[in-house]
Write a structure and sequence with these properties.
By secondary structure, the protein is α/β, with parallel strands linked by helices. Helices cover 32% and strands 19% of the residues. The strands form 3 sheets. It has a 3-stranded parallel sheet.
């Protein structure tokens, strides 16, 4: 997973024009998990992959990140599953964060070895469309027209 340079820095450069004091800001990160495996990204900050750091920085600025895994390779164990859960905790959108997330060096990460998926997932393109519609309805309460 590669991160646009603006995502890892000040949100002012790309989210500020959309900011509203009356609305929560969220980012939807859709990924197949590539480059999260064992955090093999070649770019890192203090040992954390740049993509996780970007999500943690957005959360620190009050912007939550929803994680949507696309594909079938996530499982309930292993480094990709752990990384996806870490992203969900880092983005502040994991269910029951007091139980499922713990403080890491740069922000929240998932409890190690947790079998539960803290992120949304979709196995194929049809499931992706369904998940996007459902997620929009759950998160936005109808604020975004669908159809």
């Amino acid at each position: 997973m590669r991160v646009h340079p603006a995502a890892a820095g000040d949100r002012g450069s790309w989210l500020a024009p959309l900011a509203s004091p009356d609305h929560e800001q969220l980012v939807l990160l859709v990924t197949d998990g590539v480059d999260t495996d064992s955090f093999c990204s070649s770019e890192s900050v203090d040992g954390y992959p740049d993509s996780l750091v970007a999500v943690q920085q957005l959360q620190a600025q009050g912007v939550g990140t929803l994680i949507l895994g696309v594909g079938t390779g996530f499982g309930t164990t292993g480094s990709v599953h752990q990384a996806m859960n870490d992203f969900a905790c880092a983005g502040g959108m994991a269910p029951d964060p007091e139980l499922n997330c713990v403080p890491g060096a740069m922000g929240l990460v998932a409890v190690p070895g947790l079998a539960q998926a803290l992120y949304f997932s979709a196995g194929d393109s049809a499931a992706l469309v369904d998940r996007l519609v459902l997620t929009t309805e759950q998160v936005c309460c109808g604020c975004v027209p669908v159809g």
